[in-house]
Design a protein that fits this description.
single chain, 13 strands, globular
């Protein structure tokens, strides 16, 4: 250690979430890979969050049930600086950063204000050349990195935020929230404070330009044709591939290609970020359904160089009302005004309008209900890149569509690809809910065993500390002698999100409303704990369900994300998408053959 160059800090690295088995140089023995079998930028697709973070896993511990909702290759990056939303998302591969930066020139216009301008830009490291063209105060042309498109202050700012999130300046970071449990008002971690007080921040900030240069070189596409035995999967006829290109041009390219026709000025959502974005998006979307767009795009897709330098995404913010995917990611609050990552999201992100109402499903009856999405940044998802799509199944932003195969072999990846694409294009093949079946459009994550939630005294929300004496008087035994709380038994089959998405602290800025909300939550949990404790340690699941049932509705009404169906949405090209006719089975198969070539 005494030979390391200071300042240094022992902690997590980027590779923890972004190094994985190479798709085109897979290890013969996955348990003993060699260096040439690893890739720096493909994402930790084979990473089991629950196995890594819960040692000696105990299904009776609700914390295990919570992290067990993360499929392999997904994790909840807001688990520590909690937003009170169960929200595991994929660790995406980093491909074609050069093409992505070029895409930012067209679609990635953002306006910065106040402390958002404290983010480093390429101009701070180079004085001439193309990299100086991405920032002209207060506008930055930037990739949108996080799933909800909130990392929108420039490529270097997005990189620097990651290091804060994995412990770079934990002394300051942990002052701004109550870790894991919440219940404390969240405040922004300020770049100016990090600049002043953290040598670790300043050292990292000085080096992320070099990291960006590395990613430019390292993040190269992995093509199936270059994988061992890959050619045998690319056997479609020229006629089938040609039809697949036409289908892609007409249905997919509008979100999943960086090579597109240039729309008229008032149709271009890249130039109208902020409060007018949704109107611009709607005009763009309607244009993509016209013969004019489809004819021009078919020519682009059929060109021999279509895939060369194509990021295979627009990175536009797509309203979740159109996607119909699970809303918990676009409901994330960490980057909105006044929250933990306030300094790392743009003013134009924070001023995005509401996308309107979405349909959610009651976890007790399965009946559809309407839910109004909030404004201020939430409600949108950026389309992922389709580069090397053959190697990255399962699909959707949480890896819920398809079947995970733990083998990194080409054959295993292709099996997962085929199953995943069939479930994407034939949604009826997706996993069904154990309770409601076809009544709801997918599966609700439920506890797999009877469990208990134990919260040590040091993690209890402030509301519990504030009302501890009256709560103890009303509900004797709610606190252990050490001051902790243990809630249970939570019966097997309970929706995990019912507790995991409990909004323990109101988003209101009014102190009185915050106190009233906290008191309501504290009283609800105290009464639930009391009634469950009466059952004793040997209660059956049926007995626990009877006690739990009256509280379920109240817990659901206090959900910060009331959308519990995790594998729904993205119905484009299927009969479930009402705006356009579904594709024929032959067209779907032709599209799959073309997607293999990405």
């Amino acid at each position: 250690m005494n030979k390391l160059v200071r300042p240094y800090r022992v902690g997590m690295s980027c590779g923890f979430c972004h190094v994985g088995p190479s798709p085109i140089h897979p290890p013969a023995d996955p348990e003993n890979p060699r260096w040439e079998n690893l890739n720096s930028t493909v994402g930790a697709q084979y990473f089991w969050f629950d196995r890594t973070f819960v040692w000696n896993a105990d299904p009776s511990n609700f914390t295990f049930q919570l992290v067990h909702t993360s499929r392999p290759g997904a994790l909840d990056t807001s688990l520590v600086s909690t937003d009170s939303i169960v929200n595991p998302r994929t660790m995406n591969a980093i491909y074609s950063l050069g093409a992505r930066m070029e895409l930012a020139r067209r679609w990635g216009h953002e306006i910065l204000a106040g402390p958002e301008l404290d983010n480093k830009q390429f101009n701070d490291f180079v004085q001439s050349g193309p990299l100086t063209e991405f920032f002209h105060k207060p506008e930055v042309q930037t990739p949108r990195v996080l799933k909800d498109g909130s990392d929108s202050v420039g490529a270097l700012g997005a990189l620097n935020r990651v290091y804060l999130n994995i412990g770079l300046f934990s002394e300051e970071w942990l002052l701004h929230f109550n870790a894991f449990v919440g219940g404390k008002p969240i405040t922004p971690i300020e770049i100016s404070v990090a600049e002043k007080n953290s040598s670790y921040w300043k050292a990292t900030e000085a080096q992320t330009f070099m990291l960006a240069q590395f990613l430019l070189k390292a993040g190269q596409p992995d093509h199936l044709k270059d994988a061992p035995g890959g050619a045998q999967y690319l056997s479609a006829s020229a006629t089938v591939l040609d039809r697949g290109k036409e289908v892609f041009a007409e249905r997919c390219a509008r979100c999943h290609s960086s090579k597109l026709p240039t729309p008229a000025q008032d149709l271009d959502p890249g130039g109208c970020a902020g409060p007018h974005y949704l109107a611009c998006w709607n005009r763009y979307w309607e244009w993509t359904k016209t013969d004019d767009f489809k004819q021009k795009t078919r020519q682009i897709v059929k060109a021999p160089d279509f895939l060369d330098g194509n990021y295979l995404s627009t990175e536009l913010r797509v309203p979740v009302t159109l996607l119909q995917t699970n809303a918990c990611s676009p409901l994330a609050t960490n980057a909105i005004t006044g929250n933990i990552w306030d300094n790392f999201s743009s003013q134009s992100y924070k001023s995005l309008p509401s996308v309107g109402e979405i349909t959610i499903f009651d976890p007790f009856t399965g009946e559809p209900k309407q839910y109004e999405m909030p404004a201020g940044g939430r409600g949108y998802t950026r389309p992922p890149s389709l580069i090397s799509l053959w190697s990255t199944a399962p699909y959707l932003l949480n890896n819920t569509v398809g079947e995970f195969d733990p083998s990194p072999s080409v054959a295993a990846r292709m099996r997962s690809f085929q199953i995943g694409m069939e479930q994407m294009l034939w949604p009826e093949k997706r996993e069904k809910d154990a309770v409601f079946g076809d009544k709801i459009p997918g599966v609700i994550d439920r506890t797999t065993a009877t469990s208990w939630l134990s919260v040590p005294v040091g993690y209890l929300p402030e509301a519990f500390a504030t009302f501890r004496t009256p709560l103890n008087r009303l509900f004797p035994g709610i606190f252990t002698p050490e001051g902790s709380v243990k809630l249970g038994p939570i019966p097997k089959g309970t929706p995990v999100d019912l507790i995991g998405n409990l909004d323990v602290l109101s988003d209101s800025t009014d102190p009185g409303e915050r106190v009233a909300h906290a008191a309501k939550v504290a009283a609800l949990l105290a009464q639930l704990k009391h009634d469950l404790d009466v059952l004793g340690p040997n209660a059956t699941d049926d007995e626990a369900r009877k006690v739990f049932a009256p509280f379920g509705r109240r817990l659901f009404e206090l959900s910060k994300c009331p959308d519990y169906v995790v594998n729904r949405g993205h119905y484009f090209g299927t009969d479930k998408f009402s705006e356009e006719p579904g594709l024929s089975d032959d067209d779907k198969r032709a599209l799959i053959e073309f997607l293999k070539t990405f």
